[in-house]
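Incident log, structure service

09:12 report received: a user says their structure output differs between two submissions of the same chain.
09:20 pulled the input from the user's history:
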Amino acid sequence: MSFRDMLQEDLETVFFNTNEFAEPHSIDGVVINCTIDNDQLIKRSKKEYDGISVGEILIFVKSSDISKKLGQGMPIIFDGRQMYVFNIREDMGVYEIILSQNLG
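09:34 re-ran on a clean worker, output below:
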């Protein structure tokens, strides 16, 4: 098993496991296992945005669980709340998405 395969397995069995880190959340009406990390959002805000609050929620979600192409400024209904994608990154099949209440 390659290192990449081991990482993918860890994503499935730990990071997106609802008995470990993930929780089910509704994204555009579809329930998806997500990991929320607002502590990381605070760190990123300090490091990359000079301490300016850039969003309300930082979520990690498998990119295969999102059916539409996401981009900055796109609207998303997250747990029944209208939110907007402030920033999005994809790495090894995982989206890191900062959601904001307002368009930035």
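09:41 both user submissions now match this output. Likely a transient worker issue. Closing.
09:42 reviewer note: The longest helix spans residues 3-15. The radius of gyration is 14 Å.
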